Amino acid sequence: MTTETITTDAGDARVTWHRAPRGARLVLALGHGAGGGIEARDLQALAAVLPAHGVSVALVEQPWRVAGKKVAPAPKTLDTGWRGVWPALTAPGLPVIAGGRSAGARVACRTAGELGARAVLALSFPLHPPGRPERSRADELLGAGAPTLVVQGGNDPFGRPEEFPAGTYELVGVPHGDHGFAVPGRAGITQEEAVAVVTDAVVRWSGSLG
Fold first, then answer.
1. Rounded distance, CA 142 to CA 109, Å?
2. What is the dihedral of CA 143, 178, 163, 105, to 10 degrees?
3. Any idea where the KANL3/Tex30 alpha/beta hydrolase-like domain is (predicted)?
């Protein structure tokens, strides 16, 4: 694991690399959400699992998080920070999957086309604010312009799997999972099994990308 600080127009960002030990074929870049950082269970699980499958994982901390701020800035500023780290993500000379959870997934979708991402991974995509399905953000997801995998908790208040519109993307549901893929004790699925749904889906999908 190595960490580098990258200066962007939104401030200093940080990238923590979990590199494939042999013959990496892809880079998976993962941004965090507005309510937390790269310590999120799904991001950490992917960083632990994917390198053994030839995918180097780069966990990207947005400048606001590096600076110790408590509140995420406007989407435009998040996009600026993401664009600023992109040259470091492409430096290994491999195709890059743009990914993230929640707000980070929105950033990946909005910028994938212009940055030339090989594909998009959207974890817990916030389809709408809780209780406000009329305020859909589906246009961001549908406009990603690259092969896209959505992994969504079955009880995510920001959008359950059945709420998502038809599209060319693939969607995998995590049974009983909330926005952070946490599952209740009575769910009939353990927390470890729920996280494995996420990692297994991404391993399979990334393998199809070449």
1. 8
2. 0
3. 27-205
Beta bridge partners of 55: 26
CB 66 within 8 A of CB 178: no
Residue 151 host element (H or E): strand 148-153
The pTM score is 0.97
Residue 140's H or E segment, with its range, is helix 138-142
Summarised one tens digit per residue, pLDDT across range 99-130 is 999 999 999 999 999 999 999 999 999 999 99
How many CB atoms lie under 10 A from the CB of residue 3? 10
What is the rounded CA–CA span in Å between residue 58 and residue 155? 28
Question: Residue 36's Cα: distance from chain center in Å?
Answer: 13
Give me the helix-helix angle, 75-90 and 103-115, nearest 10°: 60
Distance CA 186, CA 97 (A): 35
